[in-house]
Fold each of these.
Amino acid sequence: MTKNQESGMTKMKPWISLGGIGVLAVLLLAVAPLVLSDHWLNNLGKYSCWAIAAVGIGLAWGRGGMLVMGQGVFFALGAYSMAMHLTLETAGDRVPGFMVLYDPLAPLPMFWEPFRSTGFTLLAIVLLPVVVAGALGYALFKRRVKGAYFAILTQALAVALATLISSTIRETGGDTGLSDFKYFFGFVLNDPANRLMVYLIAAGLLIVCLLAVWQFYRSRFGELLVATRDAEERVRFLGYDPANVKLVAFVVSALMASIGGAMFVPIVGIITPAEIGAAASILMIAGVALGGRASLFGPALGAMAVGWGQSSLGSTWPDGWPYVLGLLFIVVILFLPYGLSSLPARFAALRRRPPKEQPAPAPAPAELEEVHS
Amino acid sequence: MAPLLNGSAQGALLLLAALGLSLTFGQMGVINMAHGEFLMIGAFSAYLVQQVISASDLSIPVALPVAFVVAGLFGLVLEVTIIRWMYRRPLDTLLVTVGVGLILQQAALQIFPSQGVPVEKPSWLDGQLTVLGYGWPLRQVFTILLASVCVAVLSAWLKYTSFGRRIRATVHNRDLAETAGISTRTVDRLTFFVGSGLAGVAGVAASLIGGTNSQMGAQYIIPAFLVVAAGGIGQLKGTIIAAWAVGVALAFFAYWTTGSLAQVLAFILVIVFLQLRPQGLFTVRTRSLV
Amino acid sequence: MTGASLVVTDLRVEFSGFVAVGGVSFDAHPGEVRFLIGPNGAGKTTCIDAITGLTKATGSARHGDQELLGRPVHKIVRLGVGRTFQTASVFDELTVLQNLDIAAGRHRSSFSLLRARRGVDPSIEHALEETGLTGELTTPAGILSHGQKQWLEIAMLLVQDAKVLLLDEPVAGMSQDERTATGELLQRIAAKRIVLVVEHDMDFMRRFATRVTVLHQGQVLSQGTVAEVQADPKVQEVYLGTAGAATTAAMAVVLEKEG
Ligand SMILES: Nc1ncnc2c1ncn2[C@@H]1O[C@H](COP(=O)(O)OP(=O)(O)O)[C@@H](O)[C@H]1O
Ligand SMILES: [Mg+2]
């Protein structure tokens, strides 16, 4: 490729990928509701929620180099905020059923009370992940905790939160989780028209998140983030504090996970600790790895594929699915670290020059250019 | 008193689980997330040994070396087939070994009864040791002794054998060690064998204290890693102190609150600790910028 | 602030007992190409590390009325003190333009970071011309030649609008022509800035230095113009005269350091 060609393409490419988002929007928002049955539309909605979280992981991990292994935490913040609101909406003036199961006179726990308010709930879905991720990220990044340490600490947080929820049956529903929601901000959830609306909101939010990272990636911040990922110390000598750069990406990814979690609740109808713990957090990573951590569409599409695998293979072939998932990690990370979306570039590279003796584990492709493909 | 003694035993178990992790992570920069599953393999080895030698008094002493070798071999295979290709990508190694862990877990689930298997405790671990009026179960004392022996043997091995010296030389400077005629490949493999084998030993100890099932490894990996992190890379001394501290802290938190809240509190403790003492926890490289 | 000088007083760096820099003082003013020379292991890089906040140090390093020591790296950079590295460190995966754009970023508001780049900043264009990289605008920095990477680093300092440029062995590995071009570039940019060059190429030093400080084992051995320094018998003894021995000894130190 000559330089001129390349520079021409850098100008063109953002608009091509913007077109891609447009195509995806048409498929998700217009085509899918027409051709899919209610059941599959609902499933697609569920996958979209995971995809929203995955888009955030792509930003933090693919672009920022922070392996976020505990996104379940932020997924949970959104999901449980929403679920508490919907539970209260369903219960009306009474105390939710599971709380009075053991003690008919049990009062509503204090922290539930504000979730009666629609405004507070929506605010919590946005602000809780921002505050938690902000505090955690600040504490860790300023102290230059990174790499495996960061990854395992985030995962530890997910494990801790899941354990905490499991063990507080009366306050959070414990392992059985929160379920049986009848209303969604006043709309009857049983009504197919309303379910379509919920789906459209989730799919729409996915498109919004994709647009957000599209802008992030083409912005100067996106370049700075990649620079920070590749040479954190060098960035310092340009007058930036890399901790702040990473913090922004981490907080945004947490926010996206929270949004995904919040929409997961009305679509799936139940939230349990199993959906937010270590295994769930790892599942979110799996999709991103498969699709291509640093690309624009890879994380979302990969998450949808893994989500589909989890809910179809996971139930029809429960004994085999863990092997598939395990092999996916091994094969993809070992041979295709930049996921399926790096295949075209690799093929192109193969065709351009004869294969080498020993193909080294894929070098990181120039992602800034690659996203837009 | 009870939480202190309980916690010390818990710390010893954590130490056993963390020793191997600290060896492979500290010395090779590789996080092996399947380490917990190697621990599980050790526990199942103890069970299988018991199927052959039904006298539990004898089977446990036999199971210890068996578990070491079996888990060590699993580790060796992992190193030779996968990890050797990935030394330049530590974070990716972490994810690949997550996949390996998933597969091992599922295999264990299918091979063994899903509710787990019983490992008979030997009769010589039945009694109690009375410490200041508190009956300290011998099982716990045994865990502490086992951990002490493992630490002593490991540090002597690293210090006095030529192999241990070669390991330390490789850690210090891989390229220089290579030019000095050390086969770093062999060193890597052996380190992985020993590190994974230690997980197997930890598994035997764990099988005597808790249940033996396919999920057990997942319980240990994160606390073990937190111990390695808090103790500082490649430092046996730090790992020992951290394991004991985390064990005792967990026991006290669990004593005051509930077991699950204790986990959350322990996690917060580690974060706070990272704020106070990040120096020992990662290498601040003043010269190179990479 | 253009007139402000860099004044280093009694700079001292210890690495767990080993004194790498033991009380070094020197100053540098805008308009001169200031050289810091000395055999390998003399403590030149460590001086720059200390001034830029990478290594803890005692003493003082002031730019104008600002004390630099004790501040975090990025704050020192924001005070207008920039540096390059002995081994060129640019962002290999980013293009020359992207590298420069990031370097120019510290003057931008956080909000404008969220927008895509439109066109090329005038300051970047100017830096490209100055360093002769105009033709490489869209080249990934990773495939630049060694010399070009060094120039890119200097260009990054220019767009950063650094008032103090600390350059660690900028001409190492360059051809003779490239050295001349670099020297002339340094003379041009020194007109309005403080330029401090660490080098051990004596020939390059002779051609372009205005004033020189010679370091030896963490101490200032001699200070003055090129002629003065070259005439100093101490310098001739430990550095110029016995260059062969010094180099061998220095090599041993380096091997040990990297070992
Ligand atoms: N991080 C460090 N830890 C220990 N010693 C160091 C460190 N950095 C530099 N040194 C020592 O300080 C001395 C000066 O090194 P340096 O400043 O790189 O010399 P120069 O740049 O003049 O060749 C050398 O002896 C080197 O070994
Ligand atoms: Mg140097």
Note: The mean pLDDT of chain C is 86.
Amino acid sequence: MAEKIFAGVSVTVTDEGYLTIPSQWTKEIAIEIAKEEGLTLTDKHFAVIEYLRERVLKGEALTIRSIGKSGVVDTKGFYELFPGAPLKKATKIAGVAKPVSCV
Amino acid sequence: MNKIVILGAGTGGTIMANRLYKSLSKKDWEITIIDNDPIHYYQPGFLFIPFGTYKKKDVLKPKADFIPKGVKFVLNKIDRIDPKTNNVFLDGGDVISYDYLIITTGTHIKPDETPGLMDSLWRKKIFDFYTLEGSLALHEFFKTWQGGTLVSSIAEMPFKCPVAPLEFVFLADEYFTKRGIRDKVKIIYTTPLSGAFTKPKCTLVLGDLLKEKNIEVVTDFYIERIDNDTQTIHSFDGREVKFDVLSFVPVNMGADFISKSGLGDDLNYIPTNKFTLQSEQFENIFILGDTSNIPTSKAGAVVHFASEILTENMLSIFKGETPKAQFDGHANCFIETGFGKAALIDFNYDVEPLRGAFPIPILGPMKLLKPTRINHFGKLAFRWIYWNILLKGRDLPVSTNMSMKGKIVD
Ligand SMILES: Cc1cc2nc3c(=O)[nH]c(=O)nc-3n(C[C@H](O)[C@H](O)[C@H](O)COP(=O)(O)OP(=O)(O)OC[C@H]3O[C@@H](n4cnc5c(N)ncnc54)[C@H](O)[C@@H]3O)c2cc1C
């Protein structure tokens, strides 16, 4: 657990840089985290990010599969928006916990 | 008369039929169990069939042999349930009503979810070992194969017995070594995970073993499609792996009637209270085994431990009490590592697999997270235990919830 300043605001993050309090998140913070990941956010990114936040705040678990079938973005598109490890990157930028595959 | 209906007569359903039948008065309770398949498969045995260790006859028995005579066994397919009116609808139109329902219909492979998987090479050069037909077909292929690239892949998380594809490559390493052609066989393991397994300590141990056995691991490989003409699997991020033979764990999903009844998530797993094993939606519905969404391994051993908790909770509810027993997600899995050895992992919702001795501190006789011969005998003995103790709802000499005894915390 550590404090980190994003867009002039201090937030708490895990060792891997995930926000621990999703309500501390703002769009400005997202833009800065994305920069660290080498990404420039577009409206398409934000559409996905907002969808992810909505689902996590409802207590749902995220999987690439369910995101790919959501109608917000397909799996291919999700990989294009957040190359490499889309779920890990997108959740980090969306200010929610890193999804665990627990089994 | 109170009616309990059990959906699915696999591992979980059979255990519950036995436990409840023993615990309840015959004159007040009627128990019905429904399954569309008269054969009980010992699924852990499928892993050994490609290598000729087990034959077809070693993994099959009639379901009816394991269901108490006083329990009504209905052989039919479940079409849907209506949880508001407490009715189960079967193929052909029969309706069965219940007061309490247990859903234990497991999880099954869905090869049609992966583009290209069921094209021209299906069961010719592309196999699964999650069905009897698949593992038998792979055995036929292996018998005459002279070498090339063997790729073992996983389509999607979660899937039942998450260690099975790892065991598969370890056993393949042994099999081709013994046939004297290991130098002609390249073994590649692809996974959508970032490491060999989901739990960190276990991933380290298994990662070392894979390296030692010269098995190449490709991580974060989330499969988009399979090209049968070029014999390549393609990931969503544009990587390719070529194969001469592909052993594939297809997408696993719960039964279709679950989505039809509006009960499941996108993989037809049912939201379940992970402590009490009650459905999150309906108080008189209980979920056991692979079809629940509880965050632990989908494995027979888990089903066994969970069944003890579920029985206790159902009996409390029948007495008008609130369910008190809490499941901790206890899983206990042998991992075959080849050449007559196996590793053992013991964990729960909160504690990842640790090193140590099991079930008795220091003495063991089994060792956790370390390949030993005695663990391998444990795995082989599991088949006898499965048919003779587990299915019959008898207790094993192992604690239901996980014990920290013998575990080394570092
Ligand atoms: C290759 C392999 C290796 C494995 N190795 C191990 C191991 O080493 N250790 C371990 O603990 N576990 C292992 N497992 C996992 C274990 O077999 C399962 O976790 C366990 O059987 C799950 O029990 P269940 O009752 O949830 O489902 P199942 O035992 O699969 O039973 C589900 C039942 O529901 C029935 N059914 C489904 N849909 C319908 C319908 N619509 N109508 C009527 N009936 C229906 C099916 O016919 C089936 O009989 C392995 C599995 C596989 C495939």
Note: Chain A is about 45% helix and 10% strand.
